[in-house]
Design brief:
42% helix, 5-stranded parallel sheet, 22% strand, alpha/beta, Alpha/beta knot, 5 strands
């Protein structure tokens, strides 16, 4: 199953990008033996629309244009569910085992995701009640994908 990331905004060069890239690279190497292929990160610029609602709609339309039928959509959103790493891994494994061909995990812009996307998502996920900078979210997502691969392969990286 292909796993891709859609992010509003560009991650600039620096230590945060290096750390995020390190975790995504680890995932890209550890995922294939367990049927998970990292398909990369698609970055889109933040919308320049006047209002927050218009920006969310514009960014949602650009995300929906990338969704291939049959792709599971996970949104990272402060209103989402706060789940464990084991639960996140199990959800990915269930999609893979049920024959899902792709999952797209979306990091929204500063205004968040449009309600239409939240309604259509297979999972709306939160990394906690705190608000995180997009650079940190990307690092945490990369780490959680790598952690998922280690959990599903029985690697000792994840110790609960």
């Amino acid at each position: 199953m292909k796993v891709s990331v859609h992010a509003v905004g560009r991650m600039k060069a620096g230590p945060e990008k290096q750390l995020a890239d390190r975790y995504f690279e680890r995932f890209s190497k550890s995922g294939p033996p367990i049927g998970l292929e990292f398909a990369g990160i698609v970055e889109i610029p933040e919308s320049r629309a006047q209002s927050a609602a218009e920006r969310r709609r514009d960014e949602a339309a650009r995300l929906q244009a990338q969704l291939v039928p049959g792709t599971a959509l996970f949104l990272l959103d402060e209103r989402g569910k706060n789940i464990s790493s084991d639960d996140f891994s199990n959800r990915i494994a269930t999609l893979r085992d049920d024959g899902c061909r792709a999952v797209l995990i979306a990091i929204g812009g500063p205004d968040g995701h449009d309600e239409s996307l939240r309604d259509a998502a297979d999972l709306v996920l939160s990394f906690g009640a705190l608000t995180w900078p997009h650079q940190m979210v990307r690092i945490m997502l990369g780490e959680q994908l790598y952690r998922s691969a280690t959990i599903l392969s029985g690697h000792p990286y994840h110790r609960a």
